[in-house]
């Protein structure tokens, strides 16, 4: 539910009237341009956006494992993460609730990768039965 709120309602972008305003295929353009920034708020905006996109999908792999058990491999979980973030970006584009941004897909995927690494570490330390909500 939090992911849906963040994706569609938390930051609506207004004033997108043409196709170019609704789609971004420039891979990490803002990140590469950070050395050019003159104001601290520009730097913080990009950092917040990058970390926010990673953090948004960080718990997603753990949620899949907790809800469905360990029936998915890590590759399958990453595929689900990729499909989910791609679907969200497409829906944002279709319903004009944001822009289709290749950076968001990449950063959400990184969040999924980090989520798998963290969950696997905790799984090995604590044991899966402590995460299993189906009992």
Task: Please explain how this structure is put together.
By secondary structure, the protein is mostly helical. The protein has a two-stranded parallel ribbon. It contains six helices and two strands. Helices cover 62% and strands 3% of the residues. Helix 3 packs across helix 6 and helix 5 packs antiparallel against helix 6. The chain has one domain. 18% of the residues are buried. The chain starts with a helix and ends in a 9-residue tail after the last helix.
Helix content: 55-70%
Q: Give me the side-by-side strand order of the main sheet.
A: 1-2
Q: Classify the secondary structure makeup into a structural class.
A: mainly alpha
**Number of extended strands:** 2
Number of helices: 6
Largest sheet: 2 strands, parallel
The secondary-structure element order is: HEHHHHEH
| C-alpha termini separation | 23 Å
Number of individual domains: 1
Assembly context of the chains:
single chain
Shape: globular
Q: Which percent band covers the strand fraction?
A: under 5%
Radius of gyration: 17 Å
Q: Quick check: average pLDDT?
A: 82
- Low-pLDDT segments: none
